[in-house]
Amino acid sequence: xxxxxxxxxxxxxxxxxxxxxxxxxxxxQRSAQLxxxxxxxxxxxxxxxxxxxxxxxxxxxxxxVAYAGPNGAGKSTTVKLLSGLLAPDAGSVRVFGxxxxxxxxxxxxxxxxxFGQRTELWWDHSIAASYExxxxxxxxxxxxxxxxxxxxxxxxxxxxxxxxxxxxxxLGQKMRADLGMxxxxxxxxxxxxxxxxxxxxxxxxQMLQFVKDLNRERQVTVMVTSHDMSDLEQLAGRIVMxxxxxxxxxxxxxxxxRAFSDRRRLLIETAEATAPRLAGADLLHSAAGRHEYVFxxxxxxxxxxxxxxxxxAQVLDVETHRADIDDVIADIYLRWQHDGKAQALAxxxxxxxxxxxxxxxxxxx
Amino acid sequence: xxxxxxxxLLRILQLWRLYGxxxxxxxxxDAKTFITWYITDIVVNGAAVTATLLLAERFxxxxxxxxxxxxxLLGYAVLASGLLDPFCNYNVKYVSRRLGRGQLDHTxxxxxxxxxxxxxxxxxxxxxxxxxxxxxxxxxxxTHALHLSVTPAWIAALLLNLLASAIIILAFSYLWGSLxxxxxxxxxxxxxxxxxTLDQLKSFPLDGLGLGLLGGLLTVxxxxxxxxxxxRALLGIEQSAYQLFTTPIAAAIISAAAxxxxxxxxxxxxxxxxxxxxxxxxxx
Lengths: 365, 284
Hints:
Structural class of chain A: alpha/beta
Order of helices and strands of chain A: EHEEHEHEHHHEHEHEEHEEEHEHH
Strand content of chain B: under 5%
Helix content of chain A: 25-40%
Oligomer: heterodimer
Radius of gyration of chain B: 20 Å
Order of helices and strands of chain B: HHHHHHHHHHHHH
Helix content of chain B: 55-70%
């Protein structure tokens, strides 16, 4: 069956729809005690991990959505559910109105998947051979294939290594080749799981630019997971943060900063070497009369901090800027770790579109 | 129905052409690789039957089997397992490796039924044929030495039984290999263990064993159907010509069991997925 023509595709704006999705894993617990061996063999202690706890999520056609969260938050589980590799225990997963598991063959024609830590390329064959393999297996009509091949070769700069075997490529080249291959059948949605993992600065920049171009020129919907928040901020207009299987935030990056505190940096240069003590700001470091503080601008006014500084020292210069997104996220993760208030924070976040639903009884995994 | 079947057949041929071409490109990339690959494979397959061959030579046969009959058995055994090699490369034959290493995901994101992917993906008409040559030589030699009456019906029966034996080997691998759906780490190599067991026993005549043991070797561990039983039928040691159909019937039953186990495993996979991923061995 050939790849469906784009004109035949439903024009509905919502392409991804997760409703009350639960996913649980059972994990056997191992004892370190020898005397426990027989007991754990006969009656193993099983811990249930709730990877997703009734999440609701919608993605509109043409969006780039960053999907972020700490390790073990449920990101990869979501990507697997959306790729048809896993079925939910409860709730429903629909993409283009299709069930990714039940309608797998029809569905995977319309999606592209790139897992950063694995490759779809044929190891001992040239990129050209892998691409030809893709054309035949996906049954892409020759003219569409040639058109898309020209597009990805140009934008990803594949010409220089197109006839080299995958095993001889650098990580960045392999990643570009993998991304190009995922696009040859013109998917309507692209799932990228850690696509910049291990890439150097230049390769990362090329990859991000390509995804942006792809989205702009071809209106391909993109869902991307990464631990690199700066990457995600460059790429996506919307960020969905997941924590302990719940959607803890859903909005844009500015809203994220505001929702979780408006963290700012304040750099003060004084004539004295000793750093002034500022109530409402934490001193990060101080050297040679330059003192850097971090504070929450939603709670403390800059003017008040400067007043305090001026009262204690002769202020020579002042700089203030917003905290780096990585710092904001690190702060959030730290806060989650400490007080586990993800759900409360999600409610606080005005921008949050998707609230965790009252949990239905999940089926046993 | 007929249209669907024709389309599926055409698709299989199209994919075999693709994978066949890739195999030729791969193995023929330089003469050294090509020659080394073939020589080592022929030596390995020859060595696998040497013990039985030497026993038959030393004692002028094994049990009720004359030396030439043992040769026929050996040729048949090598051919039956060798028939899988051109179709089951890339660990298609050792399915537990794919499951245990989390590599089924690569198959699941392809827009085709899983059976179609597994049937075609391992096609390697050039690199996978090294075992066929020694098997064929032994079989032809023994057939000639035994002065068998080679009629079209006999050749058809031989081919049918060879195919059935090959299917039994593959089904046995899938039957055990499906355990890797439930225990990916500990069962990762179970297909290779199952196939190794069949491989070690396939070239011995099983006559003279007690009924219980023989029953086990025709059911639980169906090594009897890999060569011994069909060879008895083909050489006329079995009295009834109907015995020629026993191996194909056994192949159908074991395949059905393997399909059921694999489908059950797929349901389990949709629930749990794979928690591990190892890249080696998937794309050679």
